[in-house]
Structures are given as structure tokens and as C-alpha cells.
């Protein structure tokens, strides 16, 4: 019995169910140091993926109480080929509504066909990067303030 091919066929059937169950998303590995893997990401890496949002079954939970925003996500391993060892600290952004999901845990199945992620929905918003500002993005530059730029003069107290 070829478990790998059976799993792959089942995943193809499930991931062809349509947009009611399968959501488009972007997997993001931000610039960071992952304490769980020991790897340092010096550039942000992204991958376009399709994800299945599932609920946890009671035997999976044990005595753990989960918040309503906690979800289990399944993603095919072939779609995460650009991401080396998905891990906590990474996140998913759902394409349809920009819902962000922080990854709390990641596990590759025994056939290496799909990843299971324990995620939590997040309100964290990304406001850009650390590139230099321009005068159109800010209220001026980093020179000394003048009476026209603030509501008074700078005088010693």
C-alpha cells in the first residue's frame, strides 16, 4: 500500500472542493530569528498557498482550553517549497479579507505531503518597512523644528 500516493490523491480531492472550504492565502516568513528552529531570516520570504481551515476535535485538545480565534490550518507541502522549516513566528494572510493568522505550531505529516498549523487569528497589522521616509510621507525632515512646524518655539525651561 503506497500511503504517500493515497495521501496525495486525497489532498487533491479536498483542495479541489472550492472557495467555500479552501481559501487563498500568502504564507509569510518575516525577517527575524526563530528561536524554535535557530534559523535567521535576513529577507522576508512569501509563498502563495491554498489553505483548508479546520476545527480541532476533542481528542486533539485534551484538557487544553482554546480561544475561539484558534484554528487548525492544512497546507500542501509542495506549496511551501520556498519556506525552509515553517515555524512559530511566521504568519498567514488570507487573500479574500486580509485576515492574519499567527502560527503557533507547525507539523509535517509522515508522508511529507501536507503541513498542519496551529494558528490564532490576529489583529496585528503591518504598516510597512524600515525604508527612509520622504516629505510626502511625513510632516517634514529631521532638521530642527521651526515656529511653522509646531505650535510654539523651543525654549529652555
Question: Your description of this structure?
Answer:
- With 157 residues, this protein is mostly beta strands.
- It is 10% helix and 32% strand.
- The strands form two sheets. It has a six-stranded antiparallel β-barrel with strand order 1-4-5-8-7-6. A two-stranded antiparallel sheet has the order 2-3.
- A hairpin with a 5-residue loop joins strand 6 and strand 7.
- The termini are far apart.
- 13% of the residues are buried.
Number-wise, the strands total 8
- Which regions are unreliable across 5 or more consecutive residues at pLDDT < 50? none
Let me know the largest β-sheet: 6 strands, antiparallel, barrel
Radius of gyration from the CA trace? 22 Å
Judged by helices, strands and strand pairing, the structural class is mainly beta
How far is the first residue's CA from the last residue's CA?
83 Å
Describe the global form: elongated
Secondary-structure element pattern, one letter each: HEEEEHEEEE
Helix content: 10-25%
> Which strand-content bin applies to the residues?
25-35%
Oligomer: single chain
Alpha plus pi helix count: 2
Overall mean pLDDT score?
79
Enumerate the strands of the largest sheet in spatial order, edge to edge or round the barrel: 1-4-5-8-7-6
What topology emerges from the helices and strands here?
Blueprint: H1 3-14, E1 22-29, E2 32-33, E3 40-41, E4 45-54, H2 58-61, E5 70-76, E6 91-94, E7 100-108, E8 114-122
Antiparallel strand pairs: 1-4, 1-6, 2-3, 4-5, 5-8, 6-7, 7-8
